[in-house]
Amino acid sequence: MQLIKTLRWFGDKDPVSLSDIRQAGATGVVTALHHIPNGNVWSVEEIQKVKSRIEAAGLTWEVVESLPVHEAIKQATSDQDAIIENYKISLRNLGKCGVKTVCYNFMPVIDWVRTDLHYQLPNGAEAMYFQLSMFIAFDIFILKRPHAESDYTPKQVAQAQSLYEQMSPEEAEKLAYNIIIVTQAFIDGSVDPNEADPKKIFLQLLKKYDHIDKYQLRENFAYFLNEVIPVAEESGVKLAVHPDDPPFPLLGLPRIVSSEEDFEWLIQAVPSLHNGITFCSGSLGARPDNHLPSLFRKFGNRVHFLHLRITKLLENGDFFEAEHLSPNNGVIELMEAIIEEQNSRQHAGRADLNIPMRPDHGHKILDDFKRKANPGYPLIGRLKGLAELYGLEQGLRYKMKYENI
Ligand code: DNO
């Protein structure tokens, strides 16, 4: 039994190569057909091309991240059925090609959000940081989202205003560009990086959710799941929804994959185990009421993919991406719960014992400062995370075997 060691690869545009990934200790790759526009079919031919390249490098294509869900589906617009049909064809084609784990998310308009991509840690490494008051400054004073102030307390608005007043116009633009483009474009973001006025387009996209609250978005999600899960079952493909990052509503948008209650809802909407979860400890950990090992123990039987990293949550609502492994950060207990889950799958006669795992993001360290990489995806920092997690896994596995769990 093992966790399959993987790293994410963004295809030909990725400054990190497949050979780098192999040398870093991964055996598997997590990738997507990034060149195919969201909503279009992934043909067998295109899937095979990427798969063959990965295999020629001595690796396996373990997980698709992501087969993106088009905004039309999240909004349930009249053209959604044709786009869902394409999604189903893509799932069938992936199944035919033997790529059988598919990660996706259901976050409207914007995927993950950080305000500082170069937060310096005491040892000189860089991590990514979410500063709540900076984000509020972006929302109210830079993006100027209509009625944004009403989402915050007067104290939050005042703090954000004072931060905004200390920013130069260039700094304000850079913050907006990081949030709307830099952290989104390489993962199929909804605003074209060549757009002359990204903020304007972004506001238009947000506006489409004016009448979509949490319950309506859940309804739209359930419609999608009821359509695609039967096809996933027929094709032997496991879908694994990625949690919201961060796991709370932003910019007036509902976010519905954030908490224990959300996972309960997800399962009752479509109970099949093919309706699974990407357990992203970093995303879920940015919320104080998410206790990672307990959440994992509760929903572990439908976790098909692991993103392991630890978030340091601060009292004012800020958080940053901490080290993958440190004695008190909870990752040891989480790893223990993961190994227990594998054991119970074995007892239940399940075939999917070896869950793919990636360290998710990494700190920028050492030679990463001389190399290019997408934000969050420096090679050496991820290599360190992978090595630490693998060591932890092996040590625990050795110990737990003798305790005969
Ligand atoms: C960021 C990632 C997310 C994730 C998607 C999955 O680095 O963890 O963009 O890939 O949400 O659909």
Secondary structure: elements and pairs:
Elements: E1 4-8, H1 18-23, E2 28-31, H2 44-56, E3 60-65, H3 71-75, H4 80-96, E4 101-105, E5 116-120, E6 126-130, H5 132-142, H6 154-166, H7 169-182, H8 198-207, H9 214-235, E7 238-242, H10 260-269, E8 275-280, H11 281-284, H12 292-299, E9 303-307, E10 311-313, E11 319-321, H13 331-347, E12 356-358, H14 379-403
Parallel strand pairs: 1-2, 1-12, 2-3, 3-4, 4-7, 7-8, 8-9, 9-12
Antiparallel strand pairs: 5-6, 6-11, 10-11
Structure description:
This protein has 14 helices and twelve strands. It has helices at 18-23, 44-56, 71-75, 80-96, 132-142, 154-166, 169-182, 198-207, 214-235, 260-269, 281-284, 292-299, 331-347, 379-403; strands spanning 4-8, 28-31, 60-65, 101-105, 116-120, 126-130, 238-242, 275-280, 303-307, 311-313, 319-321, 356-358. Helix 4 (80-96) packs parallel to helix 9. The model has no long low-confidence stretch (mean pLDDT 96). Bound molecules: D-mannose (DNO). D-mannose (DNO) binds next to strand 4.
Can you summarize this structure?
With 405 residues, this protein is α/β, with parallel strands linked by helices. It has helices at 18-23, 44-56, 71-75, 80-96, 132-142, 154-166, 169-182, 198-207, 214-235, 260-269, 281-284, 292-299, 331-347, 379-403, and strands at residues 4-8, 28-31, 60-65, 101-105, 116-120, 126-130, 238-242, 275-280, 303-307, 311-313, 319-321, 356-358. The chain is globular, with a radius of gyration of 21 Å.
